[in-house]
Amino acid sequence: MYPINLILDNKPCVVLGGGHVALRKVKGLLEAKAKVTVISPQIVEGLAKLVETKAIIWQKKCYEQGDLTDFILAICAIGNEEVNAQVRKEANQKKVILNVVDRLEFCDFALPAKIRRGDLLVTFSTNGKSPALSRYLRCKMEREFDETYANWLDKLVQLRKEAIEKLPTSDDREIFWRSALSDDVMELVRAKKYDEAEASIRDAISGFRA
Ligand SMILES: C[C@@]1(CC(=O)O)c2cc3[nH]c(cc4nc(cc5[nH]c(cc(n2)[C@H]1CCC(=O)O)[C@@](C)(CC(=O)O)[C@@H]5CCC(=O)O)C(CC(=O)O)=C4CCC(=O)O)c(CCC(=O)O)c3CC(=O)O
Ligand SMILES: NC(=O)C1=CN([C@@H]2O[C@H](COP(=O)(O)OP(=O)(O)OC[C@H]3O[C@@H](n4cnc5c(N)ncnc54)[C@H](O)[C@@H]3O)[C@@H](O)[C@H]2O)C=CC1
């Protein structure tokens, strides 16, 4: 497995099937700001609400060959081997990247469990061996990854700009950040002393010698 984070903002994605698994996958796509269409003869209540609020488009029908046209990514959550095979075939023809929720061998990608805190994204996966373990680790680590990292990340955006202005080469910046983002600084962050942490990084930028 090769981990990548897809940038799906406003890109057309389709979920086939309208059950609870489809709902979870749709929610994940919406978090990534994708433009989501669901194709299914029936949908669960959670999906119906998303249709009502126009958060997603619903095509009330069974999947047919040709339905993947115009989509860049598809998730097949129907749970039928025959349909899975048809969808896999069309995805190959149209070069659409596909996830089949009950068949890892048919997948171009699998979904990890995730913790999102602002722009920070932490993911867990098990190569399909135990989604339950991915979920367990996500729940456990949610406590560790509270909002402090996301708040700090917002500050780092500006500090990174300043480091780019003051430190001439990318080698310098690599050396700088590996030492500047120290346990001591991160302890200040954990204590929500963002200003002190910020000042410490600024001092380090002005005092940096390669
Ligand atoms: C391969 C993969 C394909 C994919 O969906 O991309 C896949 C496949 C399958 N899952 C099944 C079952 C369960 N899936 C979950 C939960 C999650 N499943 C997710 C991802 C993945 N699931 C991909 C690999 C992830 C990895 O590598 O770890 C998560 C992480 C992400 C998400 O869905 O968004 C999300 C947790 C989100 C969260 O809570 O954080 C639970 C637990 C629960 O719901 O409580 C159960 C019941 C317990 C169990 O079986 O473990 C079955 C049916 C097995 C059967 O028939 O018994 C299959 C099919 C098969 O295994 O063949
Ligand atoms: N990857 C994952 O995270 C998980 C996967 N699964 C597997 O996912 C599959 C789906 O699970 P559920 O959502 O609980 O099932 P479900 O049976 O509730 O949902 C299937 C949906 O597909 C629709 N459908 C049926 N035929 C269709 C067709 N030809 N075209 C379009 N839509 C069609 C149905 O109307 C229904 O909405 C199962 O095979 C299950 O084993 C189960 C748990 C987690």
Automatic annotation (TrEMBL):
Keywords: NAD, Oxidoreductase, Porphyrin biosynthesis
GO molecular function: ferrochelatase activity; precorrin-2 dehydrogenase activity
Record-given protein name: precorrin-2 dehydrogenase
One Pfam assignment: NAD_binding_7
EC number, as in UniProt: 1.3.1.76
InterPro entries linked: Met8-like (IPR028161), NAD(P)-bd_dom_sf (IPR036291), SirC_C (IPR042518), Sirohaem_synthase_dimer_dom (IPR019478), Sirohaem_synthase_N (IPR006367)
Catalysed transformations (reactions): precorrin-2 + NAD(+) = sirohydrochlorin + NADH + 2 H(+)
Keyword Nucleotide-binding tagged: no
Domain called Sirohaem synthase dimerisation: residue spans: 152-204
GO annotation terms (biological process): siroheme biosynthetic process
Record SUPFAM superfamilies: NAD(P)-binding Rossmann-fold domains, Siroheme synthase middle domains-like
Pathway: Porphyrin-containing compound metabolism; siroheme biosynthesis; sirohydrochlorin from precorrin-2: step 1/1
